What does this fold into?
Amino acid sequence: MGEMITKHLQNSTERMVFAQHLIHDIRALELLLKEERFEDDIVRIGAEQELCLLNREYRPFGVSLKLLEAINDPHFTTELASYNIEINLDPFELKGNCFSTIEEQLRGLLKKAEDKAYTMGAKLLLAGILPTIGKKEVGLDYLTPIPRYFALNDMLRAFKGGDFNLKIRGVDELFLKHDSVMFEACNTSFQLHLQVPSKDFVQSYNWAQAIAGPVLSICCNSPVLMGRELWKETRIALFQQSLDTRKTVFALRNQTPRVGFGDGWETGSVAEIFKKDISKHRILLTKPIEESSLSQLKKGWIPKLPALCLHNGTVYRWNRPCYGLGGGKPHLRIENRYIPSGPSVLDEMANFAFWVGLMKGRPRDCDDMSTQMDFKSVKTNFIKAARTGKETLLSWCGKVFSAQELVLGTLLPIAYEGLCSSGVDSADVERLLGVIEARTKGKSGEQWQVDNLRKLKKRFKTDKSLVLLTKSMVQNQSKDLPIHLWKDIDVDHITSKPKLVKEVMTSYVLKLYEDDYLSMARAIMEWNQIHHIPVEDKSSKLVGLLTWSYMASFDETKIDFERTTVAQFMIKDIITISPDEKISDARSIMERHNIGCLPVVLDKTLVGILSKTDLY
It folds into this structure.
């Protein structure tokens, strides 16, 4: 997706030409496989680091283009949201001190970005989901202003035929309808690449699928979205739903989502995997291609398969097959897309080493995974791991293990063997897999976030708690400690004062509807000891406010509370405020109009209520 795609599929001729190139690319790939032209005598690893940009208040900061211009380094590139950037690390041969080398490069590039970010008042954070992202930051105002992102958004919306629906249930629930793909931008990952021999690709791919659930279970770092505790790795559900173009009208027809785990064990060659994806998923984006890949092969050139690579970039398998070309030789890779960013660089490198070690240490009896496990069990493991993290019970080769038992007793020994047999330095093996062992026995990223957010919310409102949580994550990352060594937030010694309305407003708001009766409204206010209740119409639009003082100003003997509706009695001329306004401005408004509360509204939607008691 790093190419400058400027058009989507409005031109049928352009689509027809691109489709033909896609067919030619598959045929060229099959010829390359048949002629054994792939670079199969070497193994390289690589990674992509996605990260969040924050302002001084630890909120999303949309300055990616300005920052990238200041950094001026080809390793850096844009992401969908203007508060995210990506670092593309160099590939290194899997041997010796390769993990230390990658870690050193990553730290150097992060330091380079951090130094430039500091000059513009920005901070960096490695997190699967940035806790302080709100509804405003998933609007198109924060879409990186590059044509390919607008094209992608337009095409996905067109295929969907309307808005995207988010329904994620965890400890809390999040139900939203959204008009763009920007919720996908909430996800930041540490994507891992492993070069795989062409003849072993399908066996390696199936093994990558088998280990995905157990690996994810101890790497979860995305438990919170918009103040709600959802899945332990909420990215999994969020990414699929934010890019889901399937129409609900076809609910009874089997449809494969563009983001998914797969439907069964793969067979044949990597070409069969690509054919399956092309068959199931419509072309989203096109670009001009000068010469057919088959024509290039006839000339003795190795083609880049540009149409196939572009289409593959719009099919989001959690384990994605990739074709690449380097030094004139084609190669195949598996891209691991389910690992979240963070909690620290050391945690990420440990995850990297653990996954690569498992991939290279595959037991011989797992060469054909269909004889060892049912695919449905493997897929179930993945979904369960995303939901429940380290607390997951996993099915493995006919037996059930806790995530901790499976990782410590079975998978870590495989990873040790895989790295050692690949010639990786023993010091790196011990150091990085030691982090995995300590985290498995101790606390993971999602556990640390949830434990501390719950403590904060006992003392502060939700938004303030999210800011304090994010601030602590930034501070802990700067100490260069893995997550199992992070200390909990000292809530009792927090002295910072809130500045914005959303930091002190009440977000869990009781509401009335126009056709409710005053008797019920008064009872609800008495039961909950509140003096103000917003009133909405049937379309959930804020239309009024019912206050205890306003009701008390009337003679109760002249009002039939059981027959009078809220609509007949509410205040219709209401004053509202944005969640991003300053607390001082809210206080001035209340004093000027002599009112005791302000409904808090964002994009005409009620998101909270602010009372005088919240200000003092």
Observations:
- Residues 194 and 396 are 24 Å apart (CA to CA).
- The longest strand covers residues 44-54.
